[in-house]
Design a protein that fits this description.
Length: 187
């Protein structure tokens, strides 16, 4: 049980470090300066990871037999581009356009969509199959993802305190568009 937990934590922490989903969390957290938004981003990202990786752990290869990885990648790539364009064209701070839970929904949808078919999800599936222990694998995976998400939010928060909001907004939009294009191109 401890071996499954430790192996899952280490494997996922290494696989996800500086991954595009963590870069997206960093860009998103630099986009929103309020503490409550950072909590919403964490909650949305964490639930997005829990959904995508939890399903992989529970159902293994069953997910990919119903929905093609390329279809999921295409949809998530387009979502990244759409969010990036929204950040570039919106006026004001954008929170009013996304509603009270906007940062939560953006984080949740971006992470959940982008994780399907990602190496982290595939690694989670393999770890669950390897150890045949769903709970310790899930806990190890989620602890690693949670830790990295907190680190990305902290980095984004620092950026927000140093760089003017207009530049952060423009940079976040560009980062999301680039992540979307890289997803669509299979990088």
């Amino acid at each position: 049980m401890l071996e499954a937990f430790a192996a899952s934590f280490i494997a996922i922490a290494l696989a996800e470090f500086a991954d595009k989903t963590q870069l997206a969390v960093l860009a998103l957290s630099s986009r929103y300066s309020e503490r409550r938004d950072h909590l919403r981003i964490f909650a949305g990202a964490f639930l997005g990871f829990a959904l995508a990786d939890g399903l992989a752990i529970l159902f293994g290869g069953l997910i990919s037999s119903y929905v093609s990885v390329s279809a999921i990648r295409s949809f998530s790539g387009l979502a990244f581009v759409a969010f990036g364009l929204l950040f570039l064209i919106e006026k004001g701070d954008g929170a009013e356009k996304l509603g009270n839970g906007g940062s939560f929904m953006v984080a949740f949808s971006m992470i959940a969509l982008n994780e399907f078919g990602d190496k982290t999800q595939l690694a989670s599936m393999v770890l669950a199959a390897r150890f045949s222990q769903v709970l310790p694998v899930f806990l190890g995976v989620m602890l690693a993802l949670g830790m990295l998400t907190v680190m990305a939010i902290a980095c984004g928060k620092r950026v927000c305190g140093v760089v003017p909001e207009a530049k952060v907004k423009r940079a976040a939009g560009i980062v999301f568009i680039l992540l979307g294009l890289s997803t669509l191109l299979g990088y």
